[in-house]
Amino acid sequence: MPQATISLHNKEFAPYLPEAQITAAVRDLAARINRDYAGQTPLFVAVLNGSFMFAADLLKDVTLDCEVAFIRVASYAGTSTTGEVKEILGLQEDVQGRHLIIVEDIVDTGHTMQAMLQQLRAQQPASVEVATLLIKPDCLQHELHIKYQGLAIPNDFVVGYGLDYDGLGRNYRDLYRVV
Ligand code: PRP
């Protein structure tokens, strides 16, 4: 069971999804990926910072030959109507002809994923799919095909398991939501 309510900065967070439920969802995703990519050598592209814990647990259950890369995204306002233009930072690998699986902790509005998919597809990979632990269907503002979705959640602010509130909370094993 998750621990009691936690305080981060000025907010209180109540237990939401316990570690066991997260672990089960991660295992299911890994099993599907193992089946779908049998005989291939995908490149997992994990998006820092939030995905570090999910990526670590997911990859422990992947039994394929595979590679892992880590990227960050930089966003800056004013160059598009959404002010959400994002640029991929730190991708050293040549992704042309590779089977890519983007690993995210959460897809919220989808702005980040939309921008990443656009930029990665421009580099002509053989395929690109997305594995996200969490998705907020009510918040999604883009038509995105997210093949590997762990848990769909309502529009609550959540922390833990890699996700933060102003830098804090990433280290918790369970997920908490703001009270
Ligand atoms: C979070 C999350 C996604 C993005 C999702 O990252 O990891 O990258 O927001 O939101 P969206 O669908 O509305 O674009 P954040 O910018 O908080 O950085 P972090 O991963 O370092 O916490």
UniProtKB/TrEMBL annotation:
Its EC number is 2.4.2.8. Pathway: Purine metabolism; IMP biosynthesis via salvage pathway; IMP from hypoxanthine: step 1/1. It comes from the Bacteria. InterPro entries: HGPRT, Hxn_phspho_trans, PRTase-like, PRTase_dom. One of its GO terms (molecular function) is magnesium ion binding. Its cofactor is Mg(2+). It is found in: Cytoplasm. Keywords: Cytoplasm, Glycosyltransferase, Magnesium, Metal-binding, Nucleotide-binding, Purine salvage, Transferase. GO terms for cellular component: cytosol. The keyword Magnesium applies. GO terms for biological process: GMP salvage; guanine salvage; hypoxanthine metabolic process; IMP salvage; purine ribonucleoside salvage. Belongs to the purine/pyrimidine phosphoribosyltransferase family. This is Hypoxanthine phosphoribosyltransferase. It comes from Hymenobacter busanensis.
